[in-house]
Design a protein that fits this description.
Largest sheet: 7 strands, mixed
Number of helices: 0
Number of strands: 11
Structural class: mainly beta
Distance between the termini: 40 Å
């Protein structure tokens, strides 16, 4: 059974930093894309960043480029999202997700972790 478990969310002031972690288990993820997405109540889920386990192909949304960095630790089966210079508009529930290279939609989701940026 695939499990994605996020941690690291919390309350931070504007300009602060947080690091989210996503521990993945239950299958081999070498052919998977791991992503971070976020959602604000009443709005659609929004792509934040993604990374491949094998080739290290990385993408970040324009809204977070230069502030957020996605990375992975293959030995620990863990994906990270380092968030710096946080803004109030970054407040959301952040989800870790996984999809096969062959799929356009994410198949597996974590439970989400709340990030709140206060001004």
């Amino acid at each position: 059974q695939v499990q994605l478990v996020e941690s690291g969310g919390g309350l931070v002031q504007v300009g602060g930093s947080l690091r989210l972690s996503c521990a993945a288990s239950g299958r081999t993820f070498s052919s998977y894309v791991m992503g971070w997405l976020r959602q604000v109540p009443g709005k659609e889920r929004e792509f934040v960043a993604s990374i491949t386990w094998g080739g290290g192909s990385i993408a970040h949304a324009d809204s977070v480029k230069g502030r957020f960095t996605i990375s992975r630790d293959n030995a620990k089966n863990t994906v990270y999202l380092q968030m710096n210079n946080l803004k109030p508009e970054d407040t959301a529930v952040y989800y870790c997700a996984a999809r096969s290279y062959m799929r356009a939609e994410y198949e597996y989701w974590g439970q989400g972790t709340q990030v709140t940026v206060s001004s």
